[in-house]
Amino acid sequence: MASPADAMAVLRIENLSKRFGGSTALDGVDLAIGAREVHGLLGQNGSGKSTLIKILAGFHAPDPGARLWINGHAVALPLKPGDFRRLGIAFVHQHLGLVPSMSVLENLLIGEHAVAGRWRIAWAREAERAKALFARFGMTLDPAAAVETLTSVERAQLAIVRAFDQITRQPDTQTRLLVLDEPTPFLPAADVQKLFQLVRGLVAEGASVLFVSHDIDEVMDITDRITVLRDGRVADTLRTAATRKADIVRAIVGRSVDLDAMRAPRRAPGGDAVSIEGLRGAIVDDVSITVRRGEIVGLTGLIGSGYDEVVHLAYSATRALAGRLTISGTTLELAQLTPDAAIAAGIVLIPGDRQSDAVVGTLTVADNASLPVLGRQRGGWAISARGMNRIAGALAETFDVRPRDPSRLMAHLSGGNQQKVVLAKWFQTAPRLILLDEPTQGVDIGAREQIFRIIRDMSDQGTAVLCASSDHEQLAAICDRVIVLSRGRIVASLEGDAISKPAIAERCYASFGDTTGSVS
Ligand SMILES: Nc1ncnc2c1ncn2[C@@H]1O[C@H](COP(=O)(O)OP(=O)(O)OP(=O)(O)O)[C@@H](O)[C@H]1O
To answer: I need a surface site. Which of 61, 241, 354, 441 has the fewest CB within 10 A?
Structure first.
């Protein structure tokens, strides 16, 4: 039903559909974003969010029958790549699109280089303009600073302000629509609030925002309305202020989810399964951790505290300067360990940045899922494709990978479904120690529940689990113990009922006192 906000929509789409071969990504979607509205776009993995955004970016052509209006003016579809600029739309994706080695100012003006006739840039004048632009939104960025020296939240702020600046420079339009596609992963709560302050500042200056996220708390905080996609259709459009979290979850998943039930029942831990002693890396400094049998241990802290380095050092994805890891009676010197030797010892690392570290996009789902167990698939000299498909099919069933098509190219799965394949691929090797780095980043609330259950099952069967994450809700849901790091050292350990989302956050921020180094 059209609301008053729809009548003066900055962007209005009707009957948007998109099929890829036999599968339907979007099916008759209507969406209206009001002037100065922050509009959330939510939905399970594979529900069609990225496809919708890619159609606006001119990357995909929609199926015939769709209609688009920008500020009340009909716009012909399909859009060509780059059309969005002259229409007053800008995109900020999770990877932000900044060049770290270039300065803040060069990054701000990167779009200007690309525009014919704008090669001559008055740098001094632009630097003054940039300072004024940042000051307008309460930011204190130095235009001459290299982006690689900025904090994560400063980079995200720069990417968002740049997007706003690019559209306000467009001569042909008054439209200012920012599409923020998961801009907050890995940011601690206080930094998310800084970004939201910026978003509110941009809205006060006339911008509208489409905010895509899996974080329901954040969406409830920043949006005015929410559109929920399910299986490519609009499941609901909700006014945020009048909506409870449970209603949003139900719209996303299509059923009720008992959020409290996702919390792990407390178990009595067994004997020591894995111990890490005297670990040192670029940030981590003399850290010792013991994981007991049947125990899931979380690692967290502020960005730069080193909590995520621990799992990479324990697998030797990054070579440790010093430290020992003892597993099943074998002690490994971490300064000499290689990933091959780690895998042979039953250690697996599931990295957070799956696009670059964990996925081969040009191979099928079956190929990706089979990579760690190829040795088991050799029939004579050939690798059995049927065997690989069978294994991948069974894993896809357990991990609810959608669609259930092992022959699909990995690059053609949605981001969250790729993550499920990565988890499935390593879990089938029955590891002794699983090192997780942001395991449910980009994964929807329904799949998250399944993944938590699988991690718990693995731990019940004796696998030791170390999970590095900045998602305190996730840690509170799955961990028996949560270790907090600051400046490379352990500063707190929460156990049992002391673990909660606010308690973890509090320890992360109150962590500039004494450091103890080890916890068992
Ligand atoms: N290029 C493609 N070829 C074939 N199928 C595709 C392609 N891109 C997306 N799909 C399919 O379209 C559907 C919607 O995917 P989309 O990436 O839009 O989901 P999403 O809501 O963004 O998911 P996520 O939250 O996991 O990022 C999925 O079933 C996906 O497998």
So the answer is: 241
Run of H or E including 251: helix 245-253
Query: How many angstroms separate the alpha carbon of residue 232 from the centre of ligand 1?
Result: 9
| Nearest to 186, CA basis, from 215, 163, 165, 223 | 215
Compute, in angstroms, the gap from residue 300 CA to the centroid of ligand 1: 31
Query: Tens of pLDDT along 388-438?
Result: 677 777 777 877 788 888 888 888 888 778 888 888 888 878 889 999 998
What are the pLDDT digits (tens) for 299-325?
Answer: 998 777 899 999 999 999 999 999 999
CA-closest residue to ligand 1 atom 19: 46
Residue 31 tokens, joined: 């969406």
Shared domain check, 271 and 238: no
| 262-306 tens-digit pLDDT | 555 556 667 778 999 999 999 999 999 999 888 899 999 877 789
CATH code, 461: 3.40.50.300
Of ligand 1's listed atoms, the one at least distance from the Cα of 21 is 4
Range of the domain at 380: 362-430
Same domain, 189 and 87: yes
Q: How far is the CA of 416 from the centre of ligand 1 (A)?
A: 9
Does residue 161 form part of some domain? no
Burial class (CB in 10 A: 0-12, 13-18, 19+), 500: middle
Could you report the predicted ipTM of this complex, rounded to two decimals? 0.98
Angle at 183 between CA 455 and CA 108, to 5 degrees: 145
CA of 411 to the centre of ligand 1 (A): 9
